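FAQ
Q: What does a multi-component entry look like?
A: The components come first, one per line:
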Amino acid sequence: EEQLVESGGGLVKPGGSLRLTCAASASNFNTYSMSWVRQAPGKGLEWVASISSISTYLSYANSVKGRFTISRDNARNSLYLEMISLRIEDTAVYYCVREANGAIMLFDQWGQGTPVTVSS
Amino acid sequence: EIVLTQSPGTLSLSPGERATLSCRASQTISGNYLAWYQQRPGQSPRLLIYGASSRVTGIPDRFSGSGSGTDFTLTISRLEAEDFAIYYCQQYGRSPPWTFGQGTKVEIQ
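Then the predicted structure of the entire assembly, as tokens:
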């Protein structure tokens, strides 16, 4: 079973920036679309951004459009989320998730999550 | 945008009892592209059911999904200790945005 390991979370001030990384263990990483999903403290799940297998298609939630950038490096089996102009409401655990083949936005593998706290 | 409303918010039951969780969509979900996830305390979510009623490999058969159109149900036939968790429904497929319900917490009575 593929493992997804996130890193890069931490404490940042409002207006600051952060880059999250997700390392995937599977050698066929380059065949899957990937996404980031977040969960604010004590709240539900929110899809954030998605990228297709060879980066052809990108999509973002309205709440992060223009501030977050999703990217990937298939040679390094890695997924990234560049976050700028961070707001307090971006505070959440960010999960790296794999989309099931043939099923758009069906998330069949999840990482353990990395926490991001935006606070002054 | 399709809004998913889950009910009840909290379900208090005892081990061995049957749990029935509801997910209602504000519009018809085409192709029954409705999934259920389980999130145990302190853990990441995991996919249980997709296509409204198909169980993921390895998920016990006490979990079953049903429904179509706008009304969907997750049933846990006999609750075990490990099933006390929060359950989320989600619509997936070609139509953004891809939303989750707010969750139903199944707690030990």
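Q: Is there any commentary attached?
A: Sometimes. For this entry: The first strand of chain A starts at residue 4 and ends at 7.
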